Amino acid sequence: MNRPLVIAVDLSTTACKAVAFEPGGAPVAIARVALTKVSPQPGWQEQDSQGWWTAACAALTELMARVDAADVVAICVTHQRETFVCLDEDGAALRPAILWLDTRAASQVRRIGSKRIHEVSGKPPSTTPSLYKLAWLADHEPDVLRRTSTVADVHAYLVRRLTGRWVTSWASADPSGLVDMRTFEYSPELLATVGLRVDQLPELVAPGVTIGEVSEEAALATGLQTGLPVVAGAGDGQCAGLGAAICEEGRAYLNLGTAVTLGCHSERYHASLAFRTLSSPVAGKWTLEAVLASGALSLAWFGREVAGDDSPNAYQRLEAAAAEIAPGSEGLLFLPYISGVGTPYWDSAARGAWVGLRERHGLAHMYRAVLEGTAFEQLIALSMIGSAVGSDTIVIRAMGGGSRSSLWVQVLADILGKPVEVTQRSETTALGAAILAAAAMSVDGEGGVVATAKRMSRGWRTVEPELGGVEAERYRRLAEVYARLYPVLSPIFRDIDEIGRTDPPATGPRPRLGRRGCGPGWPG
Amino acid sequence: MTASGIVLGLDVSTTATKAILIRPDGSVAGVASSEYDFESPHPLWAEQDPALWWAAARESIATVLRESGTSADDIVAIGAAGQMHGLVLLDEHEVVLRPAILWNDQRTAAECDWIRETVGRERFIAITGNEPLTGFTAGKLIWVREHEPELWARARHMLLPKDYVRFKLTGEHALDVADGAGTVLFDLRTRTWSDEVVAALGLESTLLPRTVEGPEIVGSVTEEAAAATGLRAGTPVVGGAGDQAANAVGTGAVVPGIGAMSVGTSGVVFVPTAAPAIEPDGRLHAFCHAVPGTWHLMGVTLSAAGSLKWLRDELAPDKSWDELTALAEPIRPGSDGLVFLPYLSGERTPYPDPLARGAFVGLTVRHGLGHMVRAVLEGVAFSLRDVFELVRDTSPEPLRELRASGGGTNSVLWKQIIADVLDVPISLTRTAEGVATGAAILAAVAAGWYPTVGDACEAMVELAGTTPPGPDAGAYEAAYGVYRSLYPALRESFVALARV
């Protein structure tokens, strides 16, 4: 008999991937089907949930054509988080799914968002958790909610299609903001804020337990074997962490994607504005995540809009030029808030900025400053998480597209002052789901998610911090200046936001220079 | 008397001496230029050998006469203008003692502190109209006294750069009131040396030349100078002016209500006033104008067209100026909330802060290069407006027009933005060499062509188009408010960055 395979389905915002893994954690086959999304109004981001299943079937069918179905011992789903769809009693969508990126619920956040909700759900108020978008539906499409039989996250939706059961992992559901993060059960209090009944939600189970089996109907549509065990998964962020074996305290994952996510494992529940608290794929534990919405997005924006170059080699050229610039970009800082800021300030009115420009600064400095800005953010995040948890992070593992940039990883190591590990292997997020499946089936001997993760997460190579005393000190001082930028600029961001909302500009007294002016300390 | 003949104007700048020949209607008969460098033997030092100016003056005068076919006999009067503040010291034999210390020399911080303490800062500003800044002449005199006592002991005459050239032409020691106020040893109200300040600083008044108004005749070309230049001996030479005042004359900014603005690498705003007006914190320069009975306020922003040049050089080197500004045209006033702080080289007005830096604040995924270009154009306009607000607070005379010059005025969009942000019409003139032309106009008055400087400008300065404030005037108020709050918010960050 061949070695046993597990299958991970990773349904992100942009694609559905099906990946078959062997027990050592190497992917043996990958299939990918693209997804589209629509923006019917500014800030709205929606997807057709039927398209999720269609894409999953296509990806699985393609994958199953390349592996022997008899070798596959289990399947597990990971997915874009917070995205949800309202389904009727037949499981048909009442309206398009609303995505995690959608920002329509800003006024609901302002009205309902509270410290209490944060404490219970682990989610600081923002437009990301499904809760506020459900509140938006209650305000704007109450009929939809009234007729909703099930509010399904992506995991719940796919599991239902695979097994016929309305069950989801609590590590898939908790991004909704409806789960009490201390107990991993739905919170009646949170449900009440949007007027949902618990029977309108899928049953919660721990990540890593076997939920059900692939039905005959699903087997026909996907090429999987009827009766194949379906194991409860987790959201893509948490799975990326598990795929990097970040399942003990002192370990963190750094997902260098469109958004940059820094996630630390925690054995205890903590809530803080410095991070979102999610369920770890290690059942009963937590993952603390700091999120920078414009991570690789900042780099892509720079290439396209500032350098005016979005050719395939653009990043290599920019990176080569930036690598020639001294660490610290000669005193130029970049605040990477071009789509607002999440942790720790939670300010959708925040914007990006370059501060410290002099004649000598050029394109390469400005690009390097973008890389360094994202790294200074991680330094702040690590420090805040460390304070909340009471311990330091020792091991950092980076994954995602950005981890292929050697300059970005080096800058991170240098600014964090810690070694950063990277892997040649791709599909770390899918691997996290595969680890849950393999552990559930006790593939290859030892059970337990943590042991399985350590066995299957391989090929990590360490990038050490490279800087000597003077340059490291320079970064330390720059980090202090960087940390004060948002506090001094936030009132200005508020003003800019105000102006944007009261177009055309108001008439009124012209702003005047005060008598005493605002110059620096005059001599004498 | 019908105006006839030619006047000669000289501009003794930091990098070249230019000679221009102008007819009574303002048309140019000829222009010539002779270049030189300045030295920086130590950090912060900037020096130039006065012999370079005289050699360049001789060469450019000879060249312009020859190339234009003008006879020296046709020249009815001569005026010289030039770089301000530079210190020239002569001994008892009228020989130059040491290289001139120039306007951009910054070595005199300690001496300026001493001057401030000795006279008292508020008292100093109240008398001279200005802070004792390192660029001005007063500190340089003290520096030589403290650091080169042997030279100081032999010093008998002080002159400024263009006065040295006039001295070589005429043998006379004199200083015009516009340039003179720039020594910051002047009593601004009396338009001559302040006995109180001169005495407080322990300076001998015999060191200081007599003061004259711009159009006043100082002397005439000597035989020796005539032989050296090809000029006619006996040609009258006037007081002239410092370069900023001369440029204002050259563009017709000679009465309150009509200001001059230069949008070059740096931006200069020059506003004539009918009475001496002093900004009590010294945030504006206050000097005499080259026009008798007139003074002026002046503010300098250090990075004007320099900011746009920086953007182009670094982010769009393959684009022409027109292509670059074309990117900004479709962007709305206010650049969708993107603001640029143009302090790429530190700043002078309204914040004298060499540590100040530039910034782009307000970037979103929707912003691109076009927004950045527009934000630069608007940011520089905002920094010019900062100066105007300060001028408006200091002197009540309303500004009804600005005569603009400098590279930045080539852009139609930028002129419109500036006109809209300042809410003042921007006019260009046909004057190509503003400083030398202004000096020539002062000479024209002395020659009797016109009774006053104002009349001379009416006749000799030709307008070349006016950009009035348009429908977008008033669209910038909110963005200007955001701009105003940026420097106070970021000032300490700039200090901290300097220490990294």
In short:
Chain A is α+β, with helices and mostly antiparallel strands and 524 residues long.
Describe the protein's architecture and organization.
The complex is a heterodimer of chains A (524) and B (500). With 524 residues, chain A is α+β, with helices and mostly antiparallel strands. Chain A has helices spanning 49-64, 106-112, 115-121, 130-140, 142-147, 154-163, 170-173, 188-194, 216-222, 236-243, 296-306, 314-323, 363-389, 406-416, 428-440, 449-456, 469-501, and strands at residues 5-11, 15-21, 27-34, 46-47, 72-79, 84-87, 97-98, 150-153, 167-169, 179-180, 185-186, 203-205, 210-213, 229-235, 251-256, 260-266, 276-279, 286-292, 333-335, 352-357, 395-399, 420-423, 460-463. Chain B is of the alpha+beta class and 500 residues long. Chain B is built from 17 helices and 24 strands. The N and C termini of chain B lie far apart (68 Å). The interface between A and B is large, with 61 and 67 residues. Strand 20 of chain A pairs antiparallel with strand 21 (358-363) of chain B.
Main beta sheet of chain B: strand number and arrangement?
A: 7 strands, mixed
* Spatial ordering of strands, largest sheet of chain B: 18-19-17-16-22-23-24
Please report the number of helical segments of chain A.
17
Could you tell me the number of beta strands of chain A? 23
Q: What is the strand content of chain A?
A: 15-25%
| Strand order in space, largest sheet of chain A | 17-18-16-15-21-22-23
Q: State the low-pLDDT regions of chain B, or none.
A: none
Rg over alpha carbons of chain B? 23 Å
Assign the structural class of chain A, choosing from mainly alpha, mainly beta, alpha/beta, alpha+beta, or little secondary structure: alpha+beta
Give the CA-CA distance, first to last residue of chain B: 68 Å
The greatest interface here is: A-B, 61 and 67 residues
Question: Helix/strand/pairing class of chain B, anyone?
Answer: alpha+beta
Distance between the termini of chain A: 89 Å
Helix content of chain A: 25-40%
Strand tally of chain B is: 24
* Radius of gyration of chain A, whole Å: 24 Å
Major sheet details of chain A: 7 strands, mixed
Q: What's the assembly state of these chains?
A: heterodimer
